[in-house]
Structures are given as structure tokens and as C-alpha cells.
Design brief:
Layout (H helix, E strand, L loop, with lengths): L8 H18 L7 H8 L3 H7 L3 H24 L6 H21 L5 H9 L3 H24 L7 H11 L1 H4 L1 H7 L5 H17 L1
Helix pairs in contact: 1-2, 1-4, 2-3, 4-5, 4-7, 5-7, 5-10, 5-11, 7-8
């Protein structure tokens, strides 16, 4: 009789996250219980709780990994120093919008996890906003040095720039506005407006 290899604590933690992510995508965050995750792994719920204190803690880590994909794409664009700052900002806003829209429509069952994260003010959401704004600020600062932008405070400008795009960045607003107008075109219009404001 062959025995399954014993997993290290790190490997077990990783497997819990993999199974949780699969369940959230297949049946939804709200319908997934710790017992479902444990059953798939052949573990007891108590054993899952040894690695994560709550379902929310598992979800935060799943969300963090998901959002890190968005951050990586933004960092790649921000790092293209030979491209004008205004062009990089335009590409970054489209990247954020496309990422959030794909999670909303291609991964519909993740929507309730996003709603819970926002409603419960999970730390991972604040970290996401701060990371995104930090990357916008980096590019705005480049634009200031190059003479493209005339704002005084790149961080304050970045927060306003982000907020200007709320209807095309916020997952719930994307869902509500999808039937009202072309979201991609709306993103482009908002970005053009915001970039003009940075130049005044």
C-alpha cells in the first residue's frame, strides 16, 4: 500500500489556498465553507484552522495573490521609462480596468468575495489601493521631471487620478455601468480628462 507523501507546513498552506481558490471560482465565496475545503484535502476543518484562523484569512490571501497579478502588470508599464508618462498612465488605467472587468465577467463567482473584501474593509484592499496609487505617483513624478505635468504633489495627484476612474475601476460599479455605456471607451475618456488636468 502506497502512502501519500507527508507535506510540509508551507506545502499544506499552499494546498489550502489552491483548493480555496478553485472553490471560490467554481461555486462562489459565499457558498464555500471551511468544511468543503477540508473535505477536498482529506483534512479536518480543525486542521485547516491550524493554518488560517478564519475563512476571511484564507480569502484575504487568495485576494492578495490575485491583486498581485494586477500590480505586476502595472509595474511593468511604469518601468518603461522611454515611454512618455502620459502614455504610461493611459496604459495603466486600461490595464486596471481590463483586470477588474475580467474578474467581474470571466470569473463571476469571485464577485461576492470582492464585495466581502470591500464591505469588511480587508487590509488587502487598502494595500491594493496604496500600491496602485504609488505606481501612479511614480509615473506622475516622471512626468513632472520631464515637464509633462505641472502638479505640486505627485502622491496627492495620484489619489485624485485614481478616484477619477472609480466607475471603471470599482468592480461593483463596473457591473452596474456595463449596460449603460462602453466601459473601455469610458476609461479612455476619463484618462484623457485626468491627464489634461495634470498638465494644467
Amino acid at each position: 500500500m502506497s502512502l501519500r507523501p507527508r507535506l510540509t507546513p508551507d506545502e499544506t498552506r499552499e494546498r489550502i489556498l489552491e483548493v480555496a481558490d478553485e472553490h471560490f471560482r467554481r461555486i462562489g465565496y459565499g457558498k464555500t465553507a471551511i468544511a468543503d475545503i477540508a473535505s477536498t484535502l482529506g483534512m479536518s476543518p480543525a486542521n485547516v484552522y491550524r493554518f488560517f484562523p478564519s475563512k476571511s484569512a484564507i480569502c484575504e490571501e487568495v485576494a492578495r495573490r490575485l491583486l498581485d497579478q494586477c500590480h505586476a502588470a502595472l509595474r511593468d508599464i511604469a518601468a518603461e521609462k522611454d515611454v512618455a508618462a502620459s502614455e504610461r498612465l493611459a496604459r495603466m488605467t486600461m490595464a486596471v480596468h481590463a483586470f477588474n472587468k475580467s474578474q467581474m465577467f470571466d470569473e463571476k463567482r469571485l464577485h461576492d468575495m470582492v464585495e466581502a473584501a470591500i464591505a469588511e474593509n480587508w487590509h488587502v484592499i487598502q494595500r491594493h489601493l496604496e500600491t496602485m496609487v504609488g505606481l501612479f505617483a511614480e509615473v506622475i513624478r516622471d512626468g513632472m521631471v520631464a515637464g509633462e505635468f505641472v502638479v505640486r504633489d505627485p502622491v496627492e495627484a495620484a489619489w485624485s487620478f485614481k478616484q477619477c476612474h472609480a466607475t471603471v475601476f470599482h468592480p461593483s460599479l463596473i457591473e452596474q455601468c456595463a449596460q449603460l455605456f462602453d466601459l473601455d471607451e469610458q476609461t479612455r475618456r476619463l484618462t484623457q480628462f485626468a491627464i489634461r488636468a495634470l498638465k494644467i
